[in-house]
């Protein structure tokens, strides 16, 4: 397909005016954007049109297939491993990938995990891991294969897999076009199908910190992705999980790595442990492994051992102190009572304002920026005690970050109504 058949302004206008994009138009625009024939400002306009007008299921499926076709698709079948992966739709304090990969490999499956960077108010696995001195996520395909064979896991920048997603992801992050069902579904599924795992578990977030506003939209996202995975021959299931409050007690790159290490050491916040074990159970079931106990690998140190080997294989040095922002500020309780809900979106934006995320493509993130949550929902609070600590390298960021956190939590007389962390399981 060439510019004689298609041109970007026409494709943009079609979607802007609420039309549907033909298969051929989708194939053309994705290929042309990937190799530079469609400019970033044109793709930005198209992304905004998709954000505002949406796409039907067939358009999403084709958009995903075109992104998948923009690069190679890895294949590990010759290694004789049981490969399985998970991906989250994006949350606040969501460090689950770190302990999860280690737990699942300790239980006998292999995890080829193509990861992304922070997106909007949510953190990204690669930004978190890069706060470990020396860690590199730029792995050749050959290196990924070797690690899968030797350690059972590799966590790598999707890079040349689904290169269309690498470009679109960075563009969406800075053009206000992240929170779109078709764009999220295609972004996730194109890289996950390209990475070559035999099966896939999706953690679809629901609540204030999720990209989708309502549970109904999150369900729709889950069904769309499960359908795409299944259509491509990859058994796929999804858990709908709560993201009204941040996961765990930390939000921000190095803070989250430390919390993941706490979980791997047999401790850590109960919600992070619960979600890790539940997702591991789903992944192991899909991998056909029914004689393993994921929780036990956290207690007996075998998951920690895997994590250490994985980080070392990718150049990381866990003996070096994790960075923490040199400038800090606390938020204290104005009264005694019980911590109510903590708005995940506001805390995510607070961390982003502190420097944990980006506002320009390719900008450097501050690995030591973020928020420590001292009192979780339902925990008792004494007047004057510290509820949150904010960290950054840039003192001027503290004011805007505090403004973001203002009104994001309540301290009341009664605990908030308990909510389940796992809301539903979607298998088709
Ligand atoms: N994770 C992704 O990889 N892409 C999105 O769009 C959202 C979460």
From TrEMBL:
EC number assigned by the record: 2.4.2.4
SMART domains found in the cross-reference section: PYNP_C
Superkingdom, natural source: Bacteria
One GO MF term attached to the UniProt entry: thymidine phosphorylase activity
Chemical reaction(s) catalysed: thymidine + phosphate = 2-deoxy-alpha-D-ribose 1-phosphate + thymine
Matching InterPro entries: Glycosyl_Trfase_fam3, Glycosyl_Trfase_fam3_N_dom, Glycosyl_Trfase_fam3_N_dom_sf, Nuc_phospho_transferase, PYNP-like_C_sf, PYNP_C, Pyrmidine_PPas_bac/euk, Pyrmidine_PPase_CS
Pfam families in the record: Glycos_trans_3N, Glycos_transf_3, PYNP_C
Keyword Transmembrane on entry: no
GO biological process: pyrimidine nucleobase metabolic process; pyrimidine nucleoside metabolic process
Domain Pyrimidine nucleoside phosphorylase C-terminal as annotated: residue spans: 338-412
Family: Belongs to the thymidine/pyrimidine-nucleoside phosphorylase family.
General function of this protein: The enzymes which catalyze the reversible phosphorolysis of pyrimidine nucleosides are involved in the degradation of these compounds and in their utilization as carbon and energy sources, or in the rescue of pyrimidine bases for nucleotide synthesis.
Subunit record text: Homodimer.
The protein's name in its UniProt record: Thymidine phosphorylase
Gene source species: Mycobacterium asiaticum
